[in-house]
């Protein structure tokens, strides 16, 4: 007999070799139908694998990420089987799960799969799922694995197998399809009740532009048809909110092939929006004692060699810039932190000077593959709302908690109410991808965990997600559609101060090493604006929106009066524009409502005679007529109320 410990710490005995499915069945038949995977002693496993020793377990249903992972990973294999049945000879790359669904990279040779082919694959998928095919795991020797995929003439699987250690290789088989896979998978295809193949894209094998481009098919599946229906409605709403679409409609930003892929051009309205966001954060930073700095857009390659960024991210950088001097190389700045370290070193520092907080809206450049670029969320040039704090070890936790306060203040101001805080730590086993001593890492990780506990934050811990130089706290925000975005981040770093030999003179008159905090509440201005557009559907808060008011004269006769109103409002610090097109007033109203301008002011004969304006609010209709100063006071009161609620 073996002892099984459940999440509530209760313990039950089972015969050795019991499976997760049998354990679920012993609790209730309903649970056995709903459970999708199991974690055994921190290892995610199939429900059908035997448990032979005492273990702590957790059973996962659809509501759990681990449950969705098994469900979607099993669905990826089923989609591959459908594709192989319809396109014999297809070669398969990888088929992982993603945040919403899964994909498979495939090579169909001379066959070209288009979006119009997806319904045919989808139908085959459903036919196979209905057969309730079992997923069967088998441990395979490296030689047998190579022989199997050599016979299939699948060079992609052979490449993957050659990188694996003998004794660590497993296959999964369902129906007529066998795949190289670690798992876990569902017991059978029975739970898969609904599927939608979403799109076809191109993807280089292993993300390498020098390798062959494969076909990537994205899909999603669910245990209930109603879930799929709800997801497709959400997807339709997401398409309406697409920041690329709204950004074009509102004339916020643009891209130009002549300028280059992934290099956004901020148009006047977008620049105003960005400027207001920057000014908002700058005012907050002044309250918290930050000092502005400015650094160049390029730096000597040796700067990034010293920091460790070149060794870790050199291949993702743009090619070095060679100067006329022999052997001298510069890089487009991929990070701001090395520059801020050098600013710290410009003069001797005392323990009395610390903490020092340098802040910069610094533009950095990283080479993203063209297939990975996506609107403002994935670009090659972006501006970080970056700051680096240099403090004594005894100041670390307090400074970290103050940064948390700044990020939460920003989220409140922009109505991001739903977020998850994730403590990102080193990989438990593989420390090779991190720099610095074990002691420094332990101190940094402990400081973050304690700071979060003292702030009363509910955090999740993710191993292997730390930056190469230190652990971090990431803020994962859910937007209005429930999608997760990583925005703010705070990182603790003992290592760059060592690599740059940063020092301060302590109260003991000895030299000491400061601790460094990296923080970016927005993350990057580009990504943050993209998320904000989709979260608000382009209807920005009144205090932030580039255009608060549009003035609509009923006919050309009232253009002069409309100009006077415009000048009065602009002189009163109200952001107003004039639509004096020779169009009917109904069309002007409709056009400007599509531009998401909060207030529409209509002026005609009566308004011109009385010195008034007819006020219409976006989404609420007529608000009556007001004197011009009365409207200015009305707008200012609304903005003041918004900002005072943020402060509370």
Automatic annotation (TrEMBL):
Q: Where does the TGS domain lie?
A: 1-61
According to UniProt, the reaction catalysed is: tRNA(Thr) + L-threonine + ATP = L-threonyl-tRNA(Thr) + AMP + diphosphate + H(+)
> Is the keyword Cytoplasm in the record?
yes
Query: May I have one GO cellular component term?
Result: cytoplasm
What is one GO biological process annotated to this record?
Answer: threonyl-tRNA aminoacylation
CDD domains linked: TGS_ThrRS, ThrRS_anticodon, ThrRS_core
Q: Please name the Pfam families in this protein's record.
A: HGTP_anticodon (PF03129), TGS (PF02824), tRNA-synt_2b (PF00587), tRNA_SAD (PF07973)
Q: Which GO terms describe its molecular function?
A: ATP binding; metal ion binding; threonine-tRNA ligase activity; tRNA binding
The free-text note explaining how the cofactor binds reads: Binds 1 zinc ion per subunit.
Q: Does the keyword Ribonucleoprotein apply?
A: no
The family database entries (InterPro entries) matched by this protein are listed as: aa-tRNA-synt_IIb, aa-tRNA-synth_II, aa-tRNA-synth_II/BPL/LPL, Anticodon-bd, Anticodon-bd_dom_sf, Beta-grasp_dom_sf, TGS, TGS-like
Q: Whom does it interact with, and what assembly results?
A: Homodimer.
Family to which the UniProt record says this protein belongs? Belongs to the class-II aminoacyl-tRNA synthetase family.
Q: What is this protein called?
A: Threonine--tRNA ligase
Look up and give the organism this protein is from. Answer: Carboxylicivirga sediminis
């Amino acid at each position: 007999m073996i002892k099984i410990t459940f999440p509530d710490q209760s313990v039950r005995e089972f015969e050795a070799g019991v499976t997760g499915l049998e354990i679920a069945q012993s609790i209730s038949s309903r649970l056995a139908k709903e459970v999708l995977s199991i974690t055994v002693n921190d290892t995610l496993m199939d429900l059908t694998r035997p448990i032979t020793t005492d273990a702590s377990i957790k059973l996962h249903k659809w509501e759990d990420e681990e449950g969705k992972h098994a469900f979607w990973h099993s669905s990826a294999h089923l989609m591959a089987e459908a594709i192989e049945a319809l396109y014999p000879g297809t070669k398969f790359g990888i088929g992982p799960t993603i945040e919403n669904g899964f994909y498979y990279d495939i090579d169909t040779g001379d066959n070209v799969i288009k979006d119009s082919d997806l319904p045919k694959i989808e139908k085959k998928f459903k036919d196979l799922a209905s057969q309730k095919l079992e997923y069967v795991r088998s441990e395979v020797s490296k030689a047998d694995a190579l022989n199997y995929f050599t016979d299939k003439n699948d060079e992609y699987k052979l490449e993957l197998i050659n990188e694996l250690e003998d004794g660590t290789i497993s296959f999964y088989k369902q129906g007529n399809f066998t795949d190289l896979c670690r798992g876990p998978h569902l017991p059978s295809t029975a739970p898969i009740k609904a599927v939608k193949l979403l799109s076809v894209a191109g993807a280089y094998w292993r993300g390498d532009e020098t390798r062959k481009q494969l076909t990537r098919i994205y899909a999603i599946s669910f245990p209930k048809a109603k879930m799929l229906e709800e997801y497709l409605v959400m997807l339709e709403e997401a398409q309406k909110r697409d920041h690329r679409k709204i950004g074009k409609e509102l004339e916020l930003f643009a891209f130009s092939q002549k300028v280059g892929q992934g290099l956004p051009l901020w148009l006047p309205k977008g620049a105003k929006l960005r400027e207001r966001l920057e000014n908002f954060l700058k005012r907050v930073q002044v309250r918290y004692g930050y000092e502005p700095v400015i650094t160049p857009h390029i730096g000597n390659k040796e700067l990034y060699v010293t920091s460790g960024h070149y060794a870790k991210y050199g291949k993702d950088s743009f090619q070095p810039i060679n100067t006329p001097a022999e052997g001298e190389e510069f890089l487009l700045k991929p990070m701001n932190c090395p520059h801020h370290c050098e600013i710290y070193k410009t003069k001797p520092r005392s323990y009395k000077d610390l903490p020092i907080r340098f802040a910069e809206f610094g533009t950095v450049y990283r080479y993203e593959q063209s297939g990975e670029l996506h609107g403002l969320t994935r670009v090659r040039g972006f501006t970080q709302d970056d700051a680096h704090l240099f403090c004594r070890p005894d100041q670390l936790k307090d400074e970290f908690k103050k940064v948390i306060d700044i990020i939460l203040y920003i989220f409140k101001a922009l109505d991001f109410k739903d977020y998850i805080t994730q403590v990102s730590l080193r990989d438990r086993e593989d420390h090779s991808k991190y720099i610095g001593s074990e002691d420094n890492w332990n101190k940094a990780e402990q400081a973050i965990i304690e700071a979060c506990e003292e702030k009363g934050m509910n955090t999740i811990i993710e191993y292997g997600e730390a930056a190469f130089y230190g652990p971090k706290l990431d803020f994962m925000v859910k937007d209005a559609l429930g999608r997760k975005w990583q925005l703010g981040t705070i990182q603790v770093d003992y290592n760059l101060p060592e690599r740059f030999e940063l020092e301060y003179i302590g109260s003991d008159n000895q030299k000491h090493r400061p601790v460094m905090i990296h923080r970016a509440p927005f993350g990057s201005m580009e990504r943050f604006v993209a998320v904000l557009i989709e979260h608000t559907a382009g209807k920005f808060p009144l205090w932030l929106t580039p255009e608060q008011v549009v003035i609509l004269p009923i006919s050309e006769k009232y253009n002069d009066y409309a100009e006077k109103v415009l000048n009065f409002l602009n002189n009163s610090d109200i952001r107003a524009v004039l639509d004096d097109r020779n169009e009917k007033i109904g069309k002007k109203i409709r056009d400007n409502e599509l531009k998401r301008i909060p207030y529409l002011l209509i002026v005609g004969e009566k308004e011109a005679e009385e010195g008034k304006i007819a006020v219409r609010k976006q989404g609420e209709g007529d608000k009556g007529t007001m004197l011009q100063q009365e409207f200015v006071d009305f707008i200012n009161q609304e903005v003041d109320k918004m900002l005072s609620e943020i402060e509370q």
